[in-house]
Amino acid sequence: MAVKIDNTFKGKANQSPLLIEHKILSTLCHPNIVKSLDFDSKDCPRMSVQIPESLKISQTEKESLEPHSMMIMELCEKDLFNLVENTKGMFTDLLLLKHLFKQICSGVNHLH
């Protein structure tokens, strides 16, 4: 599980760009698109997000999250940016590149 926090939007939660993103992602089902599982903000008391003790954050840090909108997402184990960055441009396997490009196109096509 991953948590995406919007620290910039100060308006009502129902106008939050993060809520809009959650509403879109939560309706999609595709292997190349990360799933959004939940949304929480100070303005949505019906939803509650429990921060796992394993995150080891202080009570002050937990309280500082309250005014922010949060989207709970599935954790993406692989990250294309990090994969490219860690290989320092050594993508020379044409079959791998074709496979990655097809996956990206498949996800983008599903969004449209």
Quick take:
With about 110 residues, the protein is of the alpha+beta class. The protein has four helices and three strands.
How would you describe this structure to a colleague?
The chain starts with a strand and ends with a helix. It has two domains: 1-77, Phosphorylase Kinase, domain 1, CATH 3.30.200; 78-112. It has helices spanning 17-25, 59-65, 80-87, 94-111, and strands at 2-6, 36-40, 69-73. A three-stranded antiparallel beta sheet has the order 1-3-2, covered by helices on one side. It has 112 residues and is α+β, with helices and mostly antiparallel strands. 38% of the residues lie in helices and 13% in strands. The chain has four helices and three strands, in the order E-H-E-H-E-H-H. The mean pLDDT is 78.
Helix content: 25-40%
What structural class do the secondary elements suggest?
alpha+beta
Distance between the termini: 26 Å
Query: What portion of the residues fall into strands of 2 or more residues?
Result: 5-15%
Sequence of secondary-structure elements = EHEHEHH
How many DSSP helices?
4
- Identify low-pLDDT runs: none
Give the domain tally: 2
CATH topology of the largest domain: Phosphorylase Kinase, domain 1
Largest sheet properties = 3 strands, antiparallel
Provide the CATH architecture of the largest domain: 2-Layer Sandwich
Query: Any idea what the radius of gyration is?
Result: 17 Å
Overall average pLDDT = 78
Envelope shape: globular
How many β strands by DSSP? 3
Give me the secondary-structure topology.
Blueprint (H helix, E strand, L loop, with lengths): L1 E5 L10 H9 L10 E5 L18 H7 L3 E5 L6 H8 L6 H18 L1
Antiparallel strand pairs: 1-3, 2-3
